[in-house]
C-alpha cells in the first residue's frame, strides 16, 4: 500500500533574547508558571504587537539553509481557533495568500542520498503549555495552563508528503536538527525546543495528523504504529477518519484526539496590527554573508582532513560532537585518529536514553577535547598500546583524569628499554625451548615467541623492540 508522510517541524528560536512580539524573555524555562508574561503576549485589549527584527533574520537563515526562496515582502495572519493554551484565541503566524507568502517557499533539502521538498517556512508565535495534573490526559482530573511559553518565536518547517519510510523521516529530522544547531539559532538540547508533527495517509486515504511527540525516536515509533493501524483498517474495508491523534508514550500507541481541521476552519486573515514586512532584495545577500558554516560544508572540510564520509557524517550530525572533534584536533594534529576515537570509542559511553531524547550526549562524560588529544598522543608515541588506551579511556570518562596521568600512576606504559625487555625474552626462551628450536628452523614461528613476551609483560612490551631482541637471540 502506498504511504505518504509529511512533516511539520517546529523550532523555537532560543538564540533570541525576547519573544516574537513583546519584550518578555525568550527563555521561559525555570520561571514560575505564568510569570514570564505581559499584556501583549496575553493578548489583552488595547495592546499592540511589535515584531522582533532579529527573529525575522533567524527565520531567513533557516529558509536559506533549506534551499527555499525568500520573498521581498512577507506578512502575518491571524489563525483563529480556540484552545486553552492560546491566550488570544488566535495565533499570529504566516500564510501564503493574497500574493504575499511566508518567509520561505519552494525549497528542497538533501539528506543521505535522498531529498525532500519544503513547501514553506513560516515564522509564528508558540502557544502556551498545558500541564496535566495526573501526568496524562487520561489520568488527569484537571488541566493547568502555563502561558510562559506563549509568544516565544517559532519557525515552522512544512514539507511535502515526500516520505514513505519512518527511517527516512528520522534521518531527515536529524539533518534539520544539525542545521539549526550549526546556525546557532536553536539549542536543541532544551526540552521542547524542536518538536515535530507528522501527517500520514495510506492507499490514498484520509490524512491523519500525529501530535504530542516528544523526540525524533518517538516520531519514528509513532509513524510505524500509525502506518500499521491504517493498513490494517484499509485491508478490512474500514474507513480511516481524517483526525488528529496524540502519541501515548507510555503505551506506544496513537490515540484519537479530535477531528482534523481544514485550512478554511482557521479563517485566516491579515493581522491588522502588524504591517507587512518589506524585506527588499538586499535582505538575502546580507543574510548569506553572515551565516556560519553549514553541516554539508563542514562535512566536506572534515573529509579534506582525511576523515571518511561515514565518520564525517557521524560528527556533523551532532554539532556538540563536531565542535569537540575540532577542539581536540587543534590540540593534537591527528584528525583521523581523534575522529576514530570519538566515533568508535567515546560514543560507547554515551547514555542511549539521552541520545534518543535529543539531549546533550556528552553531559555525563568527564573527558574533554584535551583528554582525547592526550590519549591519541600516548598511542602514537608508543607509550601505551590501543588495548591499554581503551582501558584508560574508561577510567578517564568517569574521573576526568588526564590519560597520561592514569598511564603513569597505573604503570601501564609500554616497556621499550633493552634491559627490561631482555629479561622478559630470556624468561620466555627458558620456558619455551621447543618453540625456540622451531623458530630457528621456521622464521614464522617467531610470532609465537613474541606473543609469549607480550603475555609475560601483560601487553606492555614494545612489539618492535621485543621482536628485534628475539631475532638477535635466535642468531646466537
Question: Could you describe the 3D structure shown?
Answer:
This protein is an alpha+beta fold and 476 residues long. 39% of the residues lie in helices and 18% in strands. The protein contains 16 helices and 15 strands. It has an eight-stranded mixed β-sheet. A three-stranded antiparallel β-sheet has the order 4-3-14, with no helix packed on it. A two-stranded antiparallel sheet has the order 2-15. α7 crosses α10 and α13 crosses α15. The termini are far apart. The mean pLDDT is 90.
Report the end-to-end length measured between terminal Cα atoms: 78 Å
Find the structural class using helix and strand composition. Answer: alpha+beta
Radius of gyration: 30 Å
Broad shape: elongated
DSSP strand count = 15
- Mean pLDDT over all positions: 90
Largest sheet: 8 strands, mixed
Strand content: 15-25%
Identify low-pLDDT runs. Answer: none
Determine the number of helices (DSSP H or I, runs of at least 4 residues).
16
Helix content: 25-40%
Strand order in the largest sheet: 5-6-9-1-10-11-12-13
Short account of what is shown:
The chain has helices at residues 53-65, 166-183, 216-235, 282-290, 295-304, 309-316, 319-331, 335-345, 352-356, 369-380, 386-399, 403-409, 418-431, 433-441, 446-456, 463-475, and strands spanning 3-12, 73-74, 77-80, 90-93, 104-111, 114-125, 129-132, 143-146, 153-159, 194-202, 208-211, 243-248, 253-259, 269-270, 277-278. The protein is of the alpha+beta class.
Labels describing this entry:
alpha+beta; 3-stranded antiparallel beta sheet; 39% helix
